[in-house]
Amino acid sequence: MPAANIAPTRLRLGLAALVVSAFSAFGTPAQARGPDGIADVAEKVIDAVVNISTSQTVEAKGGGNTMPQLPPGSPFEEFFDDFFKNRRGPGGGSKGGDNGSAPKKTNSLGSGFIIDTAGVVVTNNHVIADADEIHVILNDGTKIKAELVGVDKKTDLAVLKIKPPKPLVAVKFGDSDKLRLGDWVVAIGNPFSLGGTVTAGIVSAKNRDISSGPYDSYIQTDASINRGNSGGPLFNLDGDVIGVNTLIISPSGGSIGIGFAVPSKTVVGVVDQLRQFGELRRGWLGVRIQSVTDEIAESLNIKPARGALVAGIDDKGPAKPAGIEPGDVVVKFDGKDVKDPKDLSRVVADTAVGKEVDVVIIRKGQEQTKKVTLGRLQDPEKVQAAVKTDEPAPEKPVTQKALGLDLAALNKDLRTRYKIKDSVKGVVVTNVDANSDAAEKRLSAGDVIVEVAQEAVSSGADIQKRVDQLKKDGKKSVLLLVSNAEGELRFVALSVQ
């Protein structure tokens, strides 16, 4: 069992809640009470925070209502006979003789907040996902049916629309970029279906990447966030929304002081597009990227290691006509520094489709600037998986050994054996030494080495020659451009020592 789980904070109705009271025999120091403005913030914004109630019809699993097998004379036999036969109809099944296979309705609760008095509500996508009906419950208990405007699964955000029966209170977004570590924040939501609940804490971290999606950049807080808080707002002490509470880390499902909120900078852009188009229209550069490791940086003469390494170019993407090539390292995009691939993914996605931007790359140790007109990222993205063969390859004479690899020039036989496309050129790997650096970097038989140190190769001898020269030059590693059978490229740095 893992020590901790990352989970959305939506609450399924019917969960039991354990209420624990605690007290201290000692007084609380004045400085531990937090700022005096929390009550003012709560009073100002509480009516803009709503509960989100959803219902969904699900198919019941067959056999789920089967009478349990009990030994004759069991003290529980009479009880189960009464429950299954008398209460559920003749034959022990549900009414209608369907044996419990009829569709059932399930309900769930989450949180949200009003951003426009016309009735626009923001929440999490996972709160309303797959729902047949969505209702917004105001702070005074008024229940209103909601219409779904649009969702963005990648940032887990959704926008709803309601017809207000009376004037509403709305909140506005603040600037999450201005948050500092240690700033006080206030979370309001519907934990464990208890209704409007106010908790307070500090900003524990910013730009947190927990690998839950391609655009992770969460605010981390120790303000208590529990199941049912999903989609609720995180406020600063001015009463502005600076985040949407989305995830918690917890081994038990309750708050342990590690919660995550989507920053308002991200939320504003997503909400604006959902309101305008009903969908997200993200920028697209048309490149496949990977991290610049210390070994790769050394091979490319980049100090310090930084940026996003271009491993492949989409033939129909905007990067190709702009002159960006595999092996380029993107270090700046539209005036913003790119420290790693996540930075590039986020800034490209946030840039308007059709905008012309400057992209600063490092190529062979020199900075160059390319002008790119962004395209639109299509969703869902279609990614072709590499074709692998499960059958062991027959023995073939090895042409050359280098870097812990058995290498051979590509021919018709080898293309057929490894199902390598005709468009792929280079030197095929036929075996990998299990104790080599190449094995650790997950090179495998059927991979094709296209370039060594950014120079094309066509034989094992070409590779050995390049490796020998790099050793003479005092290099510690060699950069390989490797293709799989489908032609998808990646860079791999191997030790030459």
Automatic annotation (TrEMBL):
Entry annotation: catalytic residues = H126 (charge relay system), D156 (charge relay system), S230 (charge relay system)
In which domain of life is the source organism classified? Bacteria
Q: What does the UniProt keyword field contain?
A: Hydrolase, Periplasm, Protease, Repeat, Serine protease, Signal, Stress response
Give this protein's Gene Ontology molecular function annotations.
Answer: serine-type endopeptidase activity
Q: What is its EC number?
A: 3.4.21.107
**Which GO terms of the cellular component aspect does the record hold?**
periplasmic space
Give any single GO term for biological process.
Answer: proteolysis
Q: Which Gene3D superfamilies match?
A: 2.30.42.10, 2.40.10.120
Main localization of the protein described in the UniProt heading: periplasm
Q: Which residues form the signal peptide?
A: 1-32
Q: Does the keyword Aminoacyl-tRNA synthetase apply?
A: no
Reaction equation(s) it catalyzes: Acts on substrates that are at least partially unfolded. The cleavage site P1 residue is normally between a pair of hydrophobic residues, such as Val-|-Val
Task: Report domain PDZ positions.
Answer: 274-365, 386-485
Q: Where is it localised?
A: Periplasm
Residues the record lists as binding substrate = H126, D156, G228, N229, S230
Q: Which Pfam families does the entry link to? A: PDZ, PDZ_2, Trypsin_2
**PROSITE patterns xref list:** PDZ
Xref: InterPro entries: PDZ, PDZ_sf, Pept_S1C_Do, Peptidase_S1_PA, Peptidase_S1C
**PANTHER family attached here?**
PERIPLASMIC SERINE ENDOPROTEASE DEGP-LIKE-RELATED (PTHR22939:SF130), SERINE PROTEASE FAMILY S1C HTRA-RELATED (PTHR22939)
Give the record's family classification: Belongs to the peptidase S1C family.
Any idea what this protein is called?
Answer: Probable periplasmic serine endoprotease DegP-like
Origin species: Bradyrhizobium frederickii
